Amino acid sequence: MSTTETDKDPGQEDRQEDRHDDLGAAGSQLSTAPQEELSGVPGLGVVGWVRWFWRQLTSMRVALLLLLLLSLGAIPGSLIPQTGADLNKVDDFRKAHRTLAPIYDKLGLFHVYSSVWFSAIYILLFVSLIGCIVPRTWQFVGQLRGRPPAAPKRLTRLPAYTTWRTTADPEQVREAALALLKRRRFRAHLAGDAVAAEKGYARELGNLAFHIALIVLLIAFASGQLYKSDGTKLVVEGDGFANALSQYDDFKSGTMFQNDDLVPFSFDLKDFKATYEVDGPNRGTPRTFEARITYSKGAYGKEQSTTVKVNQPLKIDDAKVYLVSHGYAPVITVRDGKGNVVYHDAVPLLPLDGNVTSNGVVKVYDGYRDPQGKKDQLGFQAFFVPTFNPKSGTMLSQFPALVNPLLAVNAYHGDLGGVNAGLSQNVYQLDKTHMKAFKDSKGQLLKKLLQPGDTLTLPNGAGSLTFEKDIKEWAGFEIVQEPGSGWALGGALTAIFGLAASLFIQRRRVWVRAVRGADGVTVVEMAGLGRSESAKVPEELGDLAGTLYDQAPGAPDPDDDPSESPDSHVVPAEGAEK
């Protein structure tokens, strides 16, 4: 007949209490985790509620919950355009979603990482981790400074236990056990008639290191967002760049970033080289992108040469220079009707596809006069293919390298718009609002396909445009300063190793008691206790017992058959392999 919960043996709870009393300090403090208090709702009063709230906030389950909320809160920041990353995409999203945009504004989803709710989760997690770690750290330091607790009265109550009798003196057994445990890297000492030892402190150390690393990651993330800078610059072969705000094509930074925080350096792009697969299914796939540059640190730094490759940035103090894009910059020469050169430069064109089909514009602001001698401005739309195939029937490049380059040009004249008023313009777009197209002899839009060295002649002696044989390449660089990146990497690695230590290292205690029995023979008892139930504790105890037994072999029992081997009287550790 089974016993129900209401019909439990009244002596069962007494035996459990007796076991707890027997273990005493031996079974306590196997971890630095705060013990749960079985108290109910706190008493009335402000102090009681504050203490209750603090205990909840600094508990590990709340810290994990806040970490989960922080991860979930970061999802909108990666799915929804952010004002700090790309303001144009945010504007496009507002135009395309008239209903959602006002809701997102109220929720702060266009600036997630600086929103009130995300900052609240971030700060609460920070406080929770600190409030959890500080007391556990002091408790762990106290455990390191102390000694393993003495052996409980009855070692038979422990989950792993073994015993045998030996003719060796108790003092010799204890000395042998002490030396053995120290060789096995236990912290061991003599405590009365027993040796107390403990091992596995790296578990708690790893646990604390993991949580401290989380704090380091939070600080590094915050500093990276507040003090970071990220800008891009397109540099044509032969040109250079100085790390100043006015030199960037596009630039964004954290709220606490100052212009003086930019690392002083400059570099010149000497040569850009790209190679591609020439045949097979991967034809046209890039193999190498290399930018050979010379750079110097500071205003008077020594000039040095290096090569920047994809995923191999140039590191200068806290700044990193990444190679992120490339394209072609045909050299264009524009002359007026008298043959005077009014424009000569390499014109960067923006790629449109993987084969570097590109387009752009040429703008002549000053120095040009029409056939009547009046000041005028010229604009040319350019469409470039590095490898043109007449058989394809399309003006699309067939290969990204310069095999058969071709340039298509349309010509306009008039007011380029807003330049004289000091208004900025997109250098890759042509505003034709106040421009007139040049016409050919048939009254159609003047356009021509140019090979390197060819010239487009404008009608009525208006001048010409020459596509020079020299075709340069340009490289796009991204210059990043993230002051917290090193700390973030160190924190991430520490968190990984700390978590591994807390998961795979078992903290356990071993006691060896040796006393002389009533018959004058020494009785040896060994017991082990782990923080959690694990087969490793009895296995390790069995290994230690076997080693110690070799130094203190078993004594024959007078009541046993003397023909039996002394080894037959060894009681193996419970759960261990015999």
Brief characterization of the structure:
With 578 residues, the protein is α+β, with helices and mostly antiparallel strands.
Give an overview in words.
- It is a multi-pass membrane protein.
- InterPro entries: Cyt_c_bgen_Ccs1/CcsB/ResB (IPR023494), ResB-like_domain (IPR007816).
- It comes from Streptomyces fodineus.
- This protein has 578 residues and is of the alpha+beta class.
- The protein folds into three domains: 92 residues; 98 residues, TATA-Binding Protein; 253 residues, no CATH class.
- 30% of the residues lie in helices and 28% in strands.
- The strands form four sheets. Strands 4, 6, 10, 11, 12, 19 and 20 form a seven-stranded antiparallel beta sheet that branches. Strands 13, 14, 15, 16, 17 and 18 form a six-stranded antiparallel beta sheet that branches.
- A hairpin with a 2-residue loop joins strand 10 and strand 11.
- The longest helix is centred in the N-terminal third of the chain and has 30 residues.
What's the arrangement of secondary structure elements?
Layout: H1 10-23, H2 46-57, H3 60-79, H4 87-96, H5 100-107, H6 116-145, E1 160-166, H7 170-183, E2 187-191, E3 194-199, H8 201-227, E4 229-236, E5 240-242, E6 250-253, E7 265-276, E8 286-297, E9 304-309, E10 314-316, E11 319-335, E12 341-346, E13 350-351, E14 358-364, E15 377-385, E16 406-414, E17 435-437, E18 447-450, E19 455-458, E20 463-481, H9 485-504, E21 508-516, E22 522-530, H10 536-551
Antiparallel strand pairs: 1-22, 2-3, 3-21, 4-6, 4-20, 5-7, 7-8, 8-9, 10-11, 11-12, 11-20, 13-14, 14-15, 15-16, 16-17, 16-18, 19-20, 21-22
Transmembrane segments: 62-80, 116-138, 208-227, 487-505
Domain ResB-like: 60-541
InterPro entries: Cyt_c_bgen_Ccs1/CcsB/ResB, ResB-like_domain
